[in-house]
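User: For a reading group we're discussing how well predicted structures match intuition. Take Tetraacyldisaccharide 4'-kinase. Before you show the prediction, I'll give you the sequence so everyone sees exactly what went in.
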Amino acid sequence: MKLSDLYWYRITPLHFLLWPISVLYGFFLTLKKLCYWLEILPSVKLPVTVIMIDSISVEDGSKTPLLLWLVDCLITQGYRPGIITRDNSDRPNLPHEITCESDTHSVDGKTFLLAHHCRAACPVWIGSDRIATAHALLSAHPECNIIICNGGMHYYQLERDVEIITVDFSAHSFGNGLLVPAGPLRINLNQLKKSDILVTNGKPDHPRDMSKWGKTYTMQLADEMVYNVLKPEIQQSVSCFKNKHLHIVTDANNSRWCFDLMQNKGLHAKLHSYAENHRFSQHEINLPEADAILMPEENALQCKKLANDKLWALPRKAWINNELLEIIIKKLENKN
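Assistant: Thanks. Here is the predicted 3D structure of Tetraacyldisaccharide 4'-kinase, as structure tokens, for the group to look at:
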């Protein structure tokens, strides 16, 4: 269990201290946004359209599938997007491109997953400064006419033309409903009415007043199929593993999703959960007693060089009504 689980999903005596800090944090975010709106603080406008995608929660896992869906849609429509994401490592480097050949130990799983799916069609760059990273990407790939900023809801220094916020209705996402550090939320729910585009995943665990929110679009995440890591052309339904001696290996970022998957699909598996952003070793994924080993796709791709034919990757794909794509394309056309 992560330390945040001890207080982000419940109310404890510690919240007598954490809640006032959250209130101050919310006030700081409002003041910061106002300073950029009044141009007291300078912002940067890129020469291309900027789409910002972020989630309301620190623990929200639906942002990456939405981003991959958006990339595919934009490419189909003839656009040339590029993705920038922030380097959150302890020793940040200068802006650089992430590809399928990048060292998996030097980049987090979600960023490597983006690079694996996007490949040459959509370059993925990472850096500690989003603006510098965007300029570096555009310099190396002048054909790109859209920058997708992965995260950065409160990074107002970079002007965005389209803002997309994901809202996951699971208790794991909303937690106790408080802002960080008292809870997992990055934004007060009352401020969602000011957001450009809201994409919701799942159904509310209890009735929520969404009448004051902005326009919302529904997303569904599918995790029905898996593919063999060494032979990606071989795919099977998750249900095919019901009667096998199955092991599921994951890090803490995906452990709750994997546990829910076992419950929903009726899988009788042994779940191995390691620390957040864990770097897997050979003995952790090569289990002789297992008929098959399932890993979330972002974890499995990092283990490709260590894998045998028992290792299967479990991707999550977003299914969204075409109305959202039409709205995004309309906004992009209005910016040109």
